[in-house]
Amino acid sequence: MRGNKTYSAVGLRWALLAAIVMTLLLYIPTPFAAYEPGIAIDTEPLVRAAQPDEGSKGELMLTTVKMSYPNFWTVISSSWDHDIELFRKKDLLRGKTDKEYMQRQSVIMRGSQSDAIEAAYIATGTDYQTIPVSLIVSDTKDDSDRMNSEESLRTGDEIVAAQGRKVRSLEGLLKELHSRPNAGDEAAELQVSIVRDGQRMELTLQLEAGIWSGAEGQGIEASEIWAAQALKVSALSELRTIKPADPAKAITIEASAIGGPSAGLMFALQIIDEITPGDLTGGKRIAGTGTIHPNGGIGEIGGIAHKVAAAEERGAELFLVPKRNAKDARLKAEELGSEMRIVPVETLDDALAALGMERNDEVEAR
Questions:
Q1: Is 343 exposed, middle or buried (0-12, 13-18, 19+ CB in 10 A)?
Q2: What tens digit of pLDDT does each residue of 215-230 get?
Q3: Residue 297's closest CA among 44, 107, 111, 118?
Q4: How far apart are CA 358 and CA 281, in angstroms?
Q5: Pfam families, per this entry (predicted)?
Q6: What are residue 86's DSSP bridge partners?
Q7: In order of start, what are the domains of the chain with their CATH numbers?
Q8: How far is it, in rounded angstroms, from Cα 81 to Cα 91?
Q9: Quick check: 132 and 159 in contact, CB under 8 A?
Q10: How do beta strands 341-345 and 318-322 pair?
Q11: How far is CA 98 from CA 91, 256, 333, in A?
């Protein structure tokens, strides 16, 4: 009888130890964030044209990265699972809350969509006009005290007025900044109205001193930098509507669940496919990634290996990748034993040329 009690006690101890270990491995938070392969998503359902072309038989796909906050088991698994890439959470968030990080990703995505539409219109010779809609704080400095202050701007704030006058554009904000009597001095202040979490608020901002000399007459990108510095934030984004002269070529993009700018290239290609006759895909499954500038420039992105894996999982035949990411993309494709072609591009024209070659190959095969 005593032996049975001893055996039961030992078993209970082991069960308790196992429960503690499982809790530590599965439920205790870690200081890490993890990137893993996401999914490849068809862009056609996300891009809506007023009068879409119906000629496409293939697919254009944007690629994503899955981000999560892993448990200790996932952290341990990353030592042998090459699809798990770890970062320190504080390095990824840079002192921001999860909410602020997601707000930044959302603002950047909205700006990227406008850039993609504009780039597609320029590439196809489509007449259009840009209409400023709102001015958003898209990033703040790594200063938790400032971010937590009620008298400072935060990521996601929409600036709706300055000095009592409505502001919808960077130009409007610059006009108010330059009109300050003490612009460039420590004493300069700006009264702004913002919308934060659906609530209108009034702030008195202390402007950064000594930065306005030579700021006037700069291009829009330089002006964005100057304005952000003046307001003591890292970045401002002017959200705008891109309106074509021909209503039949009007475009809307519905991708609110996707964050970041890296879908810009694939959105631009899908738009071109929608507003021009013929099949841009040549009947093939084409994936890709890359930021896009309205002038058609393609920028590098993060998480390229995970996006290659996502494209391979969907059976993509061609993967368009920013030139600076091409080496890593090829290495991942080789690791996977993929037959998918990796094509580096620096501009939207490069991507269109690559797809033109694909269409020619398709015609020759027939």
A1: buried
A2: 555 566 677 788 888 8
A3: 118
A4: 7
A5: Lon_C
A6: 34
A7: 38-95+105-127+245-365 (3.30.230.10), 130-240 (2.30.42.10)
A8: 22
A9: no
A10: parallel
A11: 13, 17, 32
Q: What are the CA-CA distances from residue 335 to residues 80, 137, 290 (Å)?
A: 14, 40, 22
What is the length of the chain? 366
Determine the residue type at 31: P
* Separation of alpha carbons 49 and 271, rounded Å: 8
Sign of the torsion angle spanned by Cα atoms 126, 255, 134, 184? negative
pLDDT tens per residue, range 92-118: 777 777 887 887 888 888 888 999 999
Those residues with Cβ within 8 angstroms of residue 339's Cβ, 6 or more apart along the chain or in another chain: none
- Residues designated catalytic: 262, 307
* Amino acid making up residue 279: D
Q: Dig out the tokens for 28 from the structure.
A: 């205790």
Task: Tell me, letter by letter, the H, E, C secondary structure of 43-58.
Answer: CCCCEEECCCCCCCCC
| pLDDT one-digit tens code per residue, 236-250 | 888 889 999 999 999
| Residues 30-56 pLDDT 10s | 888 889 999 999 999 999 888 887 767
pLDDT digits (tens, 9 = 90+) for 248-258: 999 999 877 77
Tokens of 281: 């895909």
Instruction: Give the CA dihedral 64, 332, 359, 300, nearest 10 degrees.
Output: 60
Q: Comparing C-alpha atoms, which of 226, 224, 229, 206 is closest to residue 215?
A: 226
Round to whole Å and give the CA distance between 263 and 254. Answer: 12
Task: Please give the single-letter amino acid code of residue 244.
Answer: P
